[in-house]
Amino acid sequence: MQISVVFVSAVLLVHCLLPRYAYASPPLPQEKPIQELGQTRFIEGIDVPATKPAGDTKLFSTEPVEGGGKSLPTETSELASCDIQGAVFDRLAPLQGEVGDEGCGIAVPVNLTGLRSESFEVAFPTNATLSCGFVKTLTEWVIQDVVPLAQAEFGQPVSEFFTGPGYQCRRRNNQPDGKLSEHALGKAIDITAFRLSDGTEISVETDWASKTEKGQFLSSIHQAACKRFMTVLGPDADPNHKSHFHLDIGCHGKSCTYVICQ
Description:
Elements: H1 2-17, E1 60-64, E2 71-75, H2 77-80, E3 87-91, E4 95-96, E5 105-106, E6 109-116, E7 121-131, H3 132-154, E8 158-163, E9 188-196, E10 201-203, H4 204-207, H5 213-225, E11 231-233, E12 245-248, E13 260-261
Parallel strand pairs: 11-13
Antiparallel strand pairs: 1-2, 3-6, 4-5, 6-7, 8-9, 9-10, 9-12, 11-12
Helix pairs in contact: 3-5
């Protein structure tokens, strides 16, 4: 009997001496921070403030195609004749996506082969297929910005642009779903390299950010492009653009005034 009393007393004493958390509900495990899924350095229409681009960017509207239920992006009447001073191209028949790709197409497509003036001539060896409206903006950038900057940096003009094909009926970054790429409307081009008149080559992938004349030239024309195009992406934008400049005149935001420059 004496042993039982001593045991009970010891238990009560320990109970009283223990801190409250020793017998309360066990603490919950520490919350772990939620990882940011799909984080990317490039978010369309968000990474830069709304900026009104230079020049008229309302180049396209949407109208039904005669004789069918599909629609094509249709350029405004002032571009229908596609008279672009300095551009060398062949007019093409309207392009339209196949079944399942109804969103693709160009109402006024051209096959751009080069640019020409009294003092220089620039060739596009790939003969990029583009919309007339996009070629208008591209021509202004090359003649008014790229050629003078090359002359100032190297003492000679650019003679060749190495580009992608321009028009491609696909979605952005070649993903199976999502929005159509501006390439699918002929409103974009990818430029990988340039060649000067003496044969010197300037590579976006190799020479970007280098502390050389080539690196300075690429930086300068990139900045100039941001004043003319709606989207300008280079190697600093994301891994998908490490080897080229992507230029397009696509609409961003409800007002179509967001300029993405990376």
